[in-house]
Amino acid sequence: MVLSDRSIKEEIGRGRILIEPLKTGCIQPASVDVHLDNRLLVFKTWRHPYYIDVRKRLDDLNEIVQIRESSPFLLSPGEFVLGSTVECITLPDDIVGRLEGKSSLGRIGLLIHSTAGYVDPGWHGHLTLELSNVAKLPVTLYYGMKIGQISFLRLTTAADNLYGDECLGSKRYGQAEPTPSRFYRDFESNGSKQG
């Protein structure tokens, strides 16, 4: 069941859903608007090797670029960068989140996630955005702009294991900035090939 604005406000009031900061007017009929932070993680395409090996750390393939308040970042056609929400989100054991783009941005070709729109119960941190420009013209990204919206769904029961529990090997608990893929850890933890 998707939470309505009334239920979202009640859960926030009880301290079960935390959204910090929560700007005035951001609670929509069944979601909460989130905003783009000022740091982007950009791929350095000129680095060697010229491919992405999912079994290796990717730290040296990325660099942080900061969006200045006075000028936007231009996301070129076909470009992909990682961003982050200004808001830090914390969810209880019986609520999940769904991150979606704003339709007005989708209509100009800006996508905010490829596959990572799901926010597990127990999540705590800033959400990483997978920003892609599928338009034929560059799109401007401004610090603090509305970038997406998160809706909330109630689980049938509380989850037994929350995101961040040691037994799950959660990779992004408590993240505060755009975080590169940590898929390589799957190979380290089980020592076998993925199928």
Q: What would you say this structure looks like, in words?
A:
With 195 residues, the chain is mainly beta. Helix content is 10%, strand content 33%. Strands 1, 3, 4, 6, 8 and 10 form a six-stranded antiparallel beta sheet that branches. A four-stranded antiparallel beta sheet has the order 2-12-7-9. It is globular, with a radius of gyration of 18 Å.
Topology:
Elements: H1 5-13, E1 18-20, E2 32-35, E3 39-43, E4 62-66, E5 73-75, E6 80-90, E7 95-101, H2 103-106, E8 110-111, E9 118-119, E10 124-133, E11 139-141, E12 146-154, H3 184-190
Antiparallel strand pairs: 1-6, 2-12, 3-4, 3-6, 5-11, 6-10, 7-9, 7-12, 8-10
List keywords for this structure.
195 residues; mainly beta; six-stranded antiparallel β-sheet; four-stranded antiparallel β-sheet; 10% helix
Q: Please identify the structural class as seen in this structure.
A: mainly beta
List the secondary-structure elements in sequence, H or E.
Answer: HEEEEEEEHEEEEEH
Distance between the termini: 34 Å
What is the overall pLDDT average?
Answer: 87
Main β-sheet, in a few words? Answer: 6 strands, antiparallel
In the predicted model, the low-confidence regions spanning at least 5 consecutive residues are none
Short characterization:
The chain has three helices and twelve strands. The protein has 195 residues and is mainly beta.
